[in-house]
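This entry is retained here.
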Amino acid sequence: MTHPIQIRRDGHRPLLLDLFCCAGGAAVGYHRAGFDVVGVDISPRPNYPFTCHQADALDYLAALISSGEIERYCVAHASPPCQDQCSLTVGTNRSQGWGGTHEDLVAPTRALLDASGLPYVIEQPNGRAKIRKDLTLCGEQFGLGVIRHRNFELGRWTVTRPVHVKHRGRVRGWRHGEFFDGPYVAAYGNGGGKPSVPELQAAMDIGWTDVREELTEAIPPAYSQWIGAAFLAQARAGVAA
């Protein structure tokens, strides 16, 4: 069921809760779309460009719901860790016996977001994570130098899926001992001819962090800017009505 979207009428930017925020790839896009953003992450995030609370994201969300402070927010975004089900883990890493035990926090995140009453977005990479793929975005749709497919489950609101634009070529780098050129860089890992930090920053339009691990975890801000603009368009149409 889709509920009416409400935003504040007092001239202030609507407030978005950014759970499992990392360095703020999603946050910057939502801010560009018109939101104020508050992030929550279990690790310290000194590069996060907005207000950020170091806390367990699910505990923090539960406390907001319990106290009623959740009503300050109009929407939530969550990128819960699900390395246990991502393509790299279930493919190459697992077949080679690499990696360790990873948590899948998608289901408990969804349960709390449902309890919050807020419209929400849950983001995951391609893989076996159990989310509805209500929306899939790709860097080529925004003219970026990465493919970086990401899937989004939308709770309490919907948006028309954009057409997936055909890729212009390959991801640049080494594959099985052979180097392939192409218009995109590989925004993960360190080996195999992976791009430099400046190349990653340029490819994803992220300039506020130069930490490779944060860059390789981030979604390009263009994705969340598109989502945020679509959400606000619906919200304003509802308020105007």
